[in-house]
Amino acid sequence: MSPRDSSAWHDPAPAAPLFQAELAPPQPLSPRARWSVLALVAIPTLVASGVFVAIGAWPVVGFLGVDVVLLAFALREINRRAARRERLALTRSALTIERIEPGHAPRVEVLQPYWLKVRLVQGSGRRHRLLLTSHGRQIEIGRFLGPSQREEIAGQLQQALAAVQAP
Questions:
Q1: Do 143 and 154 belong together in one domain?
Q2: Residue 54 is part of which domain span?
């Protein structure tokens, strides 16, 4: 084998996933709906600002505009958080969890599936957690999902893990 023969150095093709899922929070508003909400607040604010300027109370205008600016920032943050993703891929040798958050580098965690346990923990109130545990590590996935979605993902993942863990 010569140093130029790189085919001997490559890993074989990765195994086909037995389970794949992309977890994402529900999308709150479309861009058009976001602009509509902002306009519904901004237009009355502009009208009221014009009235205050006309009667000579112009300092009030700055206070009226604060709510529109805060609403715009809140809507932007909601949509930014809605862009989060978690990708799960289970093969016979690994469960790969890729967490994608806007503005951050993707984080990848790999767990060995043979010892992996899926736990759905019912907390107080509406707080449920979907936990993956293996070798003393505990990873929560799907924080942004509703309880029924977590149950569905837990069931699907448990079925796929049963196929991997079966002799």
A1: yes
A2: 31-81
